[in-house]
Specification:
The protein is an alpha/beta fold. It folds into two domains: 147 residues, Murein tetrapeptidase LD-carboxypeptidase, N-terminal domain (Rossmann fold, 3-Layer(aba) Sandwich), CATH 3.40.50; 144 residues, LD-carboxypeptidase A C-terminal domain-like (Glucose Oxidase, domain 1), CATH 3.50.30. The chain has ten helices and 13 strands. The chain has a seven-stranded mixed sheet with strand order 6-13-12-7-8-9-10. It has a six-stranded mixed sheet with strand order 2-1-3-4-5-11, sandwiched between helices. Helix 9 runs parallel beside helix 10.
Length: 339
């Protein structure tokens, strides 16, 4: 090959490698997350539906409680809309979420409910305005898409917590744990440091870990593998939860975590609530949740704890994703504390 022809073929290739390297560098995974400003009384929280639909009536208990906390509320255009299971079309939901991100008067965005739909709009969203004007994105379950995408690509902290559809309509009849978990959202928003003390499980692997907290719904995390929204777990404390899955499916998801390297360089692993579907008669899987997890992490030395109060359950406390935490798993107590 002539030198001129060789150079003409190499230069574009080098440029393409440079572009790829540059796009990866933009994420800066080793850079600490930006902590959005904490809220003060009079600040505004936006509410919208990036996934499943919800009625205006169904968000009223959340609106009343948020007002009681001293915050104002901006109700998004996706609330009350319905496109089959979704809170409006993909375009409507994306436009509402984008408007909330760009509105400088909105200091936090509370997703009204989960369901399914965030992955359908995440690539339609421009997060540049969020980076220029950081604000808290709040929710769990399907909202794991945003937690993972924002952490991996934009390094902004988010809040994993209950959403509007979990606020009780009659607080006088609410269980103490319901009140505590919803109050934990307010505490996160105003800057109180999170601290969870919970009962040890005899299958725990003891130890102490310090790292950035990341995680969410396990099925959603699995579905993001290999995409721009893939979760980065290196040197992190990972928490996972799920609901309505068979044990064999949970086993498959943990194999996915292991085979994609997400369990290799963890600082610690937290297993939240798992509502497991009963095995079909004659199709028993033969392993417990603890068996499944411990099999995948047997070669690693980091602490592992079960029964953490997070997930599709009443005992679902707010957690700050992207923020440094200390995890202490001991024989007599387990503790997760914001560092």
């Amino acid at each position: 090959m002539k030198r001129k022809d060789f150079l003409s073929s190499v230069i574009p290739l080098a440029a393409s490698f440079s572009a790829v390297a540059g796009s990866k560098a933009m994420a800066e995974p080793d850079k600490p997350c930006i902590i959005p400003p904490y809220l003060k009384k009079g600040d505004t929280i936006g509410i919208c539906c990036p996934a499943g639909n919800i009625t205006t009536e169904d968000i009223q208990p959340a609106l009343l409680k948020i007002n009681e906390w001293g915050f104002n509320v901006k109700v998004g255009s996706s609330i009350g809309k319905k496109d089959f299971t979704f809170g409006g079309t993909d375009e409507e939901r994306a436009a509402d979420f984008q408007q909330m991100m760009e509105d400088k008067t909105v200091k936090a965005i509370l997703c009204a409910r989960g369901g399914y739909g965030a992955v359908r709009i995440v690539d339609k969203l421009d997060f540049k305005k969020l980076k220029n004007n950081p604000k808290w994105i709040i929710g769990f379950s399907d909202v794991t898409v945003f937690h993972s995408h924002i952490n991996a690509n934009h390094r902004i902290a988010t809040i994993h917590s209950k959403m509007c559809n979990s606020f009780p309509s009659d607080w006088s009849k609410a269980e103490p744990v319901q009140i505590e978990t919803i109050e934990s959202i307010r505490k996160c928003l105003v800057g109180e440091k999170t601290k969870q003390l919970f009962t040890p499980n005899e299958k725990n692997k003891t130890g102490l870990a310090i790292g950035e907290l990341v995680g969410g719904n396990l099925k959603t995390i699995e579905s993001l593998a290999g995409s721009r929204s893939d979760i980065d777990t290196k040197d992190k404390i990972l928490f996972v939860e799920d609901t309505g899955e068979y044990l064999y499916s949970i086993d498959r998801m943990f194999w996915n975590l292991k085979r994609t390297g997400k369990l290799t360089n963890l600082k610690g692993l937290i297993i939240g609530g798992f509502k497991v579907k009963p095995d079909d008669p004659g199709e028993e899987f033969g392993k417990t949740l603890e068996d499944i997890v411990l099999e995948k992490v047997s070669e690693y030395k980091y602490p592992v704890c079960f029964d953490f109060p997070v997930g599709h359950q009443k005992n679902n406390f707010a957690l700050k994703c992207g923020v440094l935490h200390t995890l202490g798993v001991h024989l007599n107590e387990c503790r997760l504390t914001e560092a």
